[in-house]
Amino acid sequence: MDVAAAQFLSNKRIAVVGVSRSRGFGNSVMRTLEDRGFQVYPVNANADTIDGHACYRSLAMIPESVGAVVAVVPPRQTISVVDDCIRLGIRHLWMQQGSESKEAIMRAENSGIAVVHHACILMYAQPTGIHKLHRWLHGKFVSGTSID
């Protein structure tokens, strides 16, 4: 397993920014991590609950410290997630595929945040089914992808 991914997953409290009130990928990430034994904190600026879980309007509103954050938001919003991580001292950030941008990656890395990007977290959190195949294919065929 990639070192940065392993370090990220060594955190037992993980916030997922971008969980929606309806079904979406952020919701799948939240449920999968929870099923794997992580304490997961959904974050959505417009929701108080998600699937019966307390939802937080910002990372700063989470009552416990979290060691890691998964960003499942558009790239322009990921910059704000990075800034929140910097302010709160969160040192691990996973930019889910589609949420990353060069600016967000550089800002996070320049602030000492360990960043995982260009990879689906579901390929690493004890993957099953299609995500296990996705991880294998990613390892075999993806090399040095770039972001615009």
Give your account of this protein's structure.
By secondary structure, the chain is α/β, with parallel strands linked by helices. It has a single domain (3-141), classed as Rossmann fold (3-Layer(aba) Sandwich), CATH 3.40.50. Helix content is 36%, strand content 18%. The protein contains five helices and seven strands; from the N terminus they run αβαββββαβαβα. The chain has helices spanning 3-9, 25-35, 75-88, 102-110, 129-141, and strands at 13-17, 39-43, 49-50, 53-54, 68-71, 92-95, 114-117. A five-stranded parallel beta sheet has the order 2-1-5-6-7, with helices on both faces. Strand 1, helix 2 (25-35) and strand 2 (39-43) form a beta-alpha-beta unit.
Low-pLDDT windows of residues: 129-138, 140-148
CATH topology title = Rossmann fold
> In terms of quaternary structure, what is this?
single chain
Query: Largest beta sheet: what is the strand line-up?
Result: 2-1-5-6-7
**Total domain units:** 1
Specify the CATH homologous superfamily: NAD(P)-binding Rossmann-like Domain
Shape designation: globular
Structural class: alpha/beta
Can you identify the CATH class? Alpha Beta
Number of helices: 5
In round numbers, the mean pLDDT is 85
Fraction in beta strands: 15-25%
Level-2 CATH architecture: 3-Layer(aba) Sandwich
Classify the helix fraction into a percent range: 25-40%
